[in-house]
TrEMBL record:
Cofactor section: pyridoxal 5'-phosphate
PANTHER family to which the protein is assigned, alphabetical: AMINO-ACID AMINOTRANSFERASE, AMINODEOXYCHORISMATE LYASE
Catalytic EC class: transferase
Catalytic activity entry: L-leucine + 2-oxoglutarate = 4-methyl-2-oxopentanoate + L-glutamate; L-valine + 2-oxoglutarate = 3-methyl-2-oxobutanoate + L-glutamate; L-isoleucine + 2-oxoglutarate = (S)-3-methyl-2-oxopentanoate + L-glutamate
Annotated organism of origin: Paracoccus laeviglucosivorans
Biochemical pathway: Amino-acid biosynthesis; L-leucine biosynthesis; L-leucine from 3-methyl-2-oxobutanoate: step 4/4; Amino-acid biosynthesis; L-valine biosynthesis; L-valine from pyruvate: step 4/4; Amino-acid biosynthesis; L-isoleucine biosynthesis; L-isoleucine from 2-oxobutanoate: step 4/4
Protein name per the record: Branched-chain-amino-acid aminotransferase
UniProt-listed Gene3D superfamilies: 3.30.470.10, D-amino Acid Aminotransferase, subunit A, domain 2
InterPro entries per the UniProt record, alphabetical: Aminotrans_IV (IPR001544), Aminotrans_IV_CS (IPR018300), Aminotransferase-like (IPR036038), B_amino_transI (IPR005785), BCAT-like_C (IPR043132), BCAT-like_N (IPR043131), Class-IV_PLP-Dep_Aminotrnsfr (IPR050571)
Regions annotated as coiled coil: none
GO terms classed as biological process: isoleucine biosynthetic process; L-leucine biosynthetic process; L-valine biosynthetic process
The enzyme's E.C. designation: 2.6.1.42
Amino acid sequence: MAGAYDDRDGKIWMDGKLVDWRDANIHILTHALHYASSVFEGERCYSGKIFKGHEHSLRLIESARLLDMQSPYTAEEIDAAKEAVLNANGFKDAYVRAVMWRGSGEDMGVSAARNPVRMAVAAWEWGSYYGDAKWQGAKLDIAKWQRPSPMTIPTAAKAAGLYMICTMSKHAAEAKGCSDALFMDYRGYVAEATGANVFFVKDGEVHTPLADAFLNGITRQTIIQLLRDKGVTVHERHILPEEVSAFQECFLTGTAAEVTPVAQIGDDWHFQIGQVTRDIAADYETLVRA
């Protein structure tokens, strides 16, 4: 499948039923379009099975709750909607996007308590998120923006509004020939990339930023468990930028990114694509296709 995302063949699940792809539309006065009252999930289906699909459904509901939205569907109903989309489009290996938002209704201001909460699920075939960087190592820019304090916005929600600085940072990175950008958080600690969590390796041990100001990714949690099951020591902690030059390996994790090695961050930080990175990438690939 190719072409603009609003002009494709296929089916999208929307508010309880499958509709033609081109008919999956919303009104211009939808609250989410004006006030970012929207949450979403990104998932991958491997050989006909969505990896940790139920966990993603539960997180979608929790993200909505954190934005003061009551999900109109249970996790089991969301699971069924995703399966319906995959079956309707004949996909076995695909990316799945579930989104929940405040629609148009009686309110059109900051307050939108009377507007309905709506939901849709789409899926499409999507290869490597970072292209050749998945094998050659990504190059990251350093974002000028910072991940915000949890006191300013619910950072534990996968909320659309939290991604605006991601879009701007990734555009700036791409303009420099980079694959992505690395954020610091509001305190100056290393945080994450625009759509993936970051890990570092030093002397066979793994270090990853503590997820206290950004989303604790489902893939991140999976990788940490895989590493610990292998007997690898994992440190979840605050990491200062001045520590990064001492790390030997670096990799990104995420549903879209899967496990992607990093070769360079900014102008000064360089990494090898080492054995820890290669092994965990292989272990993850085996797990998702099990």
